[in-house]
């Protein structure tokens, strides 16, 4: 069922709006228009519909107008022309009170840099939307706590945002949005400020959440991989206009024009991806503290036969195998350092994936991804091959 | 010596200002008198009240305040104790209370006028365009000039002193309130809007709390400027330490001048540290 319909919406920033609109019709580029009229085209003549319960991804490079477009939907930015309907109600002609009601009850927004209020605790942040609605304190507390609990952050409710990592802050941002129980979520580059491992985790959580609650989500991103991963439909933007709308499959197989083709080709994963993008969480032990029994316990728990050894500062030391640990237990040795293997391959986090491939081809152990000496993650052979295989899919 | 420049007749600017002043004084006579009489009564009552507090009690209260404001460190309380005892010892206690009275009213009124003006300035570009040059004018015009309308409107005494001090001390609070609100990160303003906050909710729940530090810095400056007006205000009959400085100057008494001056410095340091710590305390 149709939830959002956007009809011929344009946004021109600056003064000479009419002249700029005329130039856009002549298919002049954004820079040319800026030069001639001093006006900036934010979004031009954009139309699309979003169905209830889907994740609609708007993708484009920076400056393509995607962040402007999402702000037109809740009128954080006033459209110059065009109509926006939500459940058939025209947002673009609403008065202030009606718009406020829509913002309070129907759509919530998640921001790139989280948009958390630094002077408020996590709980106070989470209840903000309910607070401005005028909900009684006890009731909004309860709802906010529920939302934080779902995000796994209830224990931190009295902390302040700057005491948390980026990933945790964005979970609060999402919890704040969900506490309102909106039908529509607007997510503006919500995961772009997070590091790759956390980002992937958050994407998974969002997909899982979507299975449970079925919101209509408008998701803005500049990352094609992210778009392909989570989007039911993807709209590709350039210079304020939507160039192609379709499923991920459509866009990869039938690029609408050369721009889309070049964009998609850019996703030659082996060329674009670096070690950082494909590394996984290392299963490690602190060689200075942990003895063989701890090591064996962890191997059982994680179902692996090898642990990466680090010191107190997470500097890479080497690795320990299950055989070593068993031997140490048998000998009654408490210190594992004598059993430490140091012949582990390492790569820097920005190593390109095809170079990683060369390293991992001969390696007997996972390859450690390091920054200086610090262990960031590990790369296992399967992942590299999978990533390269995906590349071929994309290219063919 | 004649020059081409002399062919222009002199513009009667001074006369115009005089006329405007005369008009203001006669037209708003009742209003000015009302402020004068009530203001005088209010300030004299406060002065009586301050004088009724035994100095020992006042000093102890200030020391306690300093102790908690500086988060239980000993520097500021010690300074407050020694400084105020010295002022008392020099026989300047009544003058100190009068000065304190003047600053108290000048600062409070500056804050009451300044913060809303600053908010208006932050919210409206037109208001900013009008208020900014006005503030520049208020700050650059020599402070003595304000004494003239002050006397015309309110006669002599503490009330015109407060009036002149407010004009001089007001700008930092206005400017810093404006700056503080404008500096709130755009994303947080958007966040407040996107959750359907009304303008008032946004102001009180997001903008003012985030601008608090900046506004407090402005208030601190306002208090300091009010203090620096003490001597000037004494020229139109405002009682207090300023009058001692002024009379020492007129009689070339270096010693008396120094003692009154150092008393002002002591008051300044105490007020400065106290207003600064108001900000730090809650963070």
From TrEMBL, chain B:
**How is this protein named in the record?**
Proline/glycine betaine ABC transporter permease
Kindly list any coiled-coil regions of this protein: none
Primary localisation category: membrane
Membrane topology term reads: Multi-pass membrane protein
Q: Which UniProt keywords apply?
A: Cell membrane, Membrane, Transmembrane, Transmembrane helix, Transport
Q: Which family does it belong to?
A: Belongs to the binding-protein-dependent transport system permease family.
Cellular component, GO annotation: ATP-binding cassette (ABC) transporter complex
InterPro entries reported in the protein's UniProt record = MetI-like, MetI-like_sf
- Where is the chain membrane-spanning? 49-69, 76-96, 102-122, 143-170, 223-242, 254-271
Q: Which organism is it from?
A: Metalysinibacillus jejuensis
The molecular function terms in GO held by this entry are: amine transmembrane transporter activity; carnitine transmembrane transporter activity
Q: Where in the cell is it found?
A: Cell membrane; Membrane
* Occurrences of domain ABC transmembrane type-1 (ranges): 96-275
User: Which biological process annotations from GO are given for this protein?
Assistant: choline transport; glycine betaine transport
Provide the taxonomic classification.
Bacteria, Bacillati, Bacillota, Bacilli, Bacillales
């Amino acid at each position: 069922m149709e939830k959002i319909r956007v009809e011929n919406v344009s946004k021109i920033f600056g003064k000479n709006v009419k002249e700029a609109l005329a130039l856009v019709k002549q298919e002049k580029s954004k820079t040319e228009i800026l030069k001639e009229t001093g006006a900036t085209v934010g979004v031009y003549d954009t139309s699309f519909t979003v169905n209830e319960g889907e994740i609609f991804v708007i993708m484009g490079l920076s400056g393509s107008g995607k962040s402007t477009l999402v702000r037109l939907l809740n009128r954080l930015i006033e459209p110059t022309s065009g109509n926006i309907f939500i459940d058939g109600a025209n947002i673009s002609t609403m008065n202030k009170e009606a718009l406020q009601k829509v913002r309070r009850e129907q759509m919530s927004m998640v921001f790139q840099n989280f948009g958390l209020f630094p002077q408020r605790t996590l709980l106070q942040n989470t209840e903000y939307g309910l607070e401005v609605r005028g909900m009684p304190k006890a009731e909004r507390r309860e709802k906010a706590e529920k939302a934080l609990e779902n995000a796994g952050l209830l224990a931190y409710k009295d902390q302040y945002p700057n005491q948390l990592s980026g990933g945790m802050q964005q979970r609060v941002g999402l919890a704040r949005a969900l506490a309102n129980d909106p039908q529509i979520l607007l997510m503006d580059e919500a995961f772009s400020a997070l590091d790759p491992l956390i980002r992937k985790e958050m994407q998974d959580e969002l997909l899982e959440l979507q299975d449970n609650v079925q919101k209509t989500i408008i998701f803005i991103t500049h990352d094609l991989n992210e778009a392909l991963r989570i989007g039911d439909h993807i709209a590709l933007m350039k210079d304020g206009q939507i160039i192609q709308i379709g499923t991920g499959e459509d866009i990869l197989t039938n690029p609408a024009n050369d721009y889309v083709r070049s964009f998609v080709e850019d996703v030659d994963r082996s060329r674009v991806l670096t070690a950082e993008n494909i590394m996984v969480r290392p299963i490690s032990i602190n060689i200075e503290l942990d003895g063989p029994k701890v090591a064996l316990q962890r191997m059982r728990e994680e179902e692996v036969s090898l642990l990466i050894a680090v010191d107190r500062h997470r500097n890479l030391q080497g690795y320990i195998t299950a055989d070593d640990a068993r031997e140490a237990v048998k000998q009654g040795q408490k210190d594992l350092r004598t059993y430490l293997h140091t012949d582990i391959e390492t790569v820097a986090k920005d190593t390109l994936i095809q170079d990683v491939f060369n390293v991992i081809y001969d390696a007997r152990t996972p390859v450690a991804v390091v920054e200086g000496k610090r262990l960031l993650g590990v790369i296992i052979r399967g992942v590299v091959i999978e990533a390269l295989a995906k590349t071929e899919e994309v290219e063919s | 010596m004649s020059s081409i420049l002399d062919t222009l007749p002199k513009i009667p600017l001074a006369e115009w200002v005089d006329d405007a002043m005369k008009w203001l004084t006669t037209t708003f006579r009742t209003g000015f008198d009302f402020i004068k009489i009530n203001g005088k009564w209010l300030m004299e009552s406060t002065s009586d009240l301050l004088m009724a507090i035994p100095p020992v009690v006042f000093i102890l209260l200030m020391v306690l305040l300093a102790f908690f404001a500086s988060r239980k460190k000993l520097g500021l309380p010690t300074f407050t104790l020694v400084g105020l005892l010295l002022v008392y010892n020099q026989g300047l206690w009544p003058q100190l209370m009068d000065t304190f009275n003047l600053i108290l009213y000048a600062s409070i009124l500056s804050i009451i006028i300044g913060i809303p003006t600053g908010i208006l300035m932050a919210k409206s570009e037109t208001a900013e365009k009008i208020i900014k040059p006005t503030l520049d004018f208020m700050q650059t015009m020599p402070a003595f000039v304000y004494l003239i309308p002050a006397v015309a409107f309110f006669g002599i005494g503490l009330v015109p002193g407060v009036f002149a001090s407010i004009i001089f001390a007001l700008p930092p609070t206005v400017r810093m309130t404006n700056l503080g609100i404008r500096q709130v990160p755009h994303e947080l303003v958007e966040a407040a809007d996107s959750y359907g906050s009304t303008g008032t909710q946004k102001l009180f729940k997001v903008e003012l709390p985030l601008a608090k530090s900046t506004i407090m810095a402005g208030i601190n400056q306002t208090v300091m400027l009010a203090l620096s007006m003490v001597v000037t205000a004494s020229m139109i009959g405002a009682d207090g330490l300023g009058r001692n400085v002024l009379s020492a100057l007129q009689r070339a008494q270096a010693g008396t001048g120094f003692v009154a001056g150092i008393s002002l410095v002591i008051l300044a340091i105490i007020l400065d540290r106290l207003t600064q710590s108001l900000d730090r305390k809650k963070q």
